[in-house]
Amino acid sequence: MEPKWLEWAKQLQAIAQNGLTFSENAFDIERFKAVQAIAAEILVTHTNAELSYILDLFTRDVGYATPKVDVRGAVFRDDQILLVKERSDGCWTLPGGWADIGTSPSEAVIKEIYEESGYYSRAVKLVAVYDRDRQGHPPFPHYIYKLFFQCELLGGSPSPSIETEAVGFFPEDEIPELSVGRVTAAQITRLFQHYRHPELSTDFD
């Protein structure tokens, strides 16, 4: 589970964002901005982030506060899973990222797989819908739902992108160092289980 300070900061930010969305009274708006500033201060106190960076993240997120959606695709070939190496941290992950407005979840994950790896695919099963904060990922300012899809490989060839520097397929017992902010070892293990046992139901929470 996430530390209490992070849980409190996210809850305060959600209260502030919702208040700023619906308030018209100048005094209420001022109070909700103060709550937002407190949430940012909590995050800055417990991380190495700059206050201006956290406040910018908060102020750019407008409207009613809801979870962000991250999609990840598990593509298998010969009992090996497709991973991409992130330029940002030099570690490996499932291809994926934020779901874009105007694309369905399956369209979003197919797009991410192609852009980050060079492979064409087709989503065949929603394997899991996870609350990121309950999955052992490192702290992150936003509240996120992670959608994992099992995808069928259709074609293409390995092609790194502006975000990825390498592409490869790996057996379960040779998984390289993972970018744990994006995917954990336990999630990779669970994806192999779903691949080998297609009768399994979708995981959630």
Low-confidence stretches: none
The backbone outline, from C-alpha atoms, is elongated
The chain-level mean pLDDT equals 95
Task: Determine the N-to-C terminus distance.
Answer: 12 Å
Helix/strand-derived category reads alpha+beta
Rg (CA only): 19 Å
Instruction: Compute the number of strand runs.
Output: 8
Q: Which band does the percent of strand residues land in?
A: 25-35%
Report helical residue fraction: 25-40%
The helix-strand sequence is HHHEEEEHEEEHE
Output the number of helix runs: 5
Largest sheet: 8 strands, mixed
List keywords for this structure.
8-stranded mixed beta sheet, elongated, alpha+beta, 205 residues
Protein model, in words:
It is a single chain. The chain is of the alpha+beta class. Helices cover 37% and strands 28% of the residues. It is built from five helices and eight strands; from the N terminus they run αααββββαβββαβ. Strands 1, 2, 3, 4, 5, 6, 7 and 8 form an eight-stranded mixed sheet that branches. A hairpin with a 5-residue loop joins β2 and β3. It is elongated and about 60 Å long. The relative contact order is 0.17.
Quick synopsis:
This protein has helices at 4-22, 26-46, 51-60, 105-117, 185-196; strands at 68-77, 80-86, 92-93, 96-98, 119-131, 144-156, 164-170, 203-204. It contains five helices and eight strands.
List the helices and strands and how they pair.
Layout: H1 4-22, H2 26-46, H3 51-60, E1 68-77, E2 80-86, E3 92-93, E4 96-98, H4 105-117, E5 119-131, E6 144-156, E7 164-170, H5 185-196, E8 203-204
Parallel strand pairs: 1-6, 5-8
Antiparallel strand pairs: 1-2, 1-4, 2-3, 2-7, 5-6
Helix pairs in contact: 1-2, 2-3
